[in-house]
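Appendix B, example 12.
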Amino acid sequence: MGHVKFHLGYFTKFGATSWPGDGKEFGSNWIDGSYHKELARMLEAAKFDFILFEDTTIVGDRYAGSMELDLKNATLAPKLDPLPLLPLMAQDTSHIGLIATASTTFYPPYLLARLLSTVDSLTGGRAGWNMVTSSEKNAALNFGMDKLLPPTVRYDIADEYVDLVKQLWDSWDEGALVANTETGVYVDHTKVHTIDFVGEHFRSRGPLNTVRSPQGYPVFAQAGASERGRAFSSKNAEVVLGMMTGGVPGMKAYREDIRNRAEAQGRNPDDIKVVFLTPVNILPEGVEQQEMTDAEKQASFEHNIVMASSSLDVDFSLYDLDGPVPQDIVAGGHTSALDHMKKAGREEGKSLRDLFSMGQGASGMDFSGTPQQIAEKMMAVMDEVGGDGFLIEGSGYNRQLPQLIDELIPALQQAGAVRTEYTGNTLRDILREF
């Protein structure tokens, strides 16, 4: 019996991806883009569908009111803007998709529509946009806002935003650029029109002054977890990023929920690919688990506590890290993650230090072992869930890149579970091949 065929994405950031290390690793020269250009070549050779860049616009200082731990470990900062990086990565590749994160909370819609249209043209139709509504208070302050609006309002704004940028991209009809030397007409003016958009949050006259890009719209990606987030992604997204919480039953239920919601809105659910974010941990034959050095353990702990302080909007330095998890912590950010931590404290007697020392295993799935073992696990999960793929966590996993590309992916290819060639030309074509 054949396996469900699934898509592969690679999740990374335009930041330091091999720290802590000795500075000689692949990835230490990331600032001029050369590392990511090489990464794109390698992942295209392995026939990945796309590379997705997470992004934030802050230096984290929620923990102890200081930027020290964030900057020391290159956790949230430094990061460069991934949008200008995509065309650079496209130069030496021909098929792999390139998706960057940009926030509907901060970009003026016209500016982002023009920028993404440009990037889609520069990449030959391989661009994607990971749509986020920013949740960090510091980001609001960086952009001159006193505070962020509540999440439901941010999503209402995002819905209108997407509607507006689509209208701007459609302000140039297919075939508007004629470049007819005989008539002397470069663009047919009857195929370019104003949009005169007036919404609750935005207004824009249009048209864009770019040309219609190869895909028309970039591919839309989004991670919708909350009720409002799922409503947004099932309406707009083509790539939906799922977390593997709740193991296989949770993944299956999440994918079915997104597909049912999309169908209810008149969309073809097969146009949406739900990909699950996962670390993989490739171990040598006969090794059960890799022991971390004390320095690595400490760096990992600091990384996790900076990430949690920022995303939950909680200063964890105010609590006893070695006592039981305090049940009175109030989250300003992602509340469900905090509930999960409190429960582990209550039911398993875990301390905050225990929880922040657990590495990246919060996904509920364990993809560790030899390349062959991991391939078997991935295929078994996808067969059960029904599709559509995995987004493999790249940041910090650079040491495993050769094994990932030379051993794990070929094992999946030999079993017929992932692609061995590209047949489509644009990212949208590639995602819809199966």
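The chain has a mean pLDDT of 92. The CA atoms of residues 162 and 420 lie 34 Å apart.
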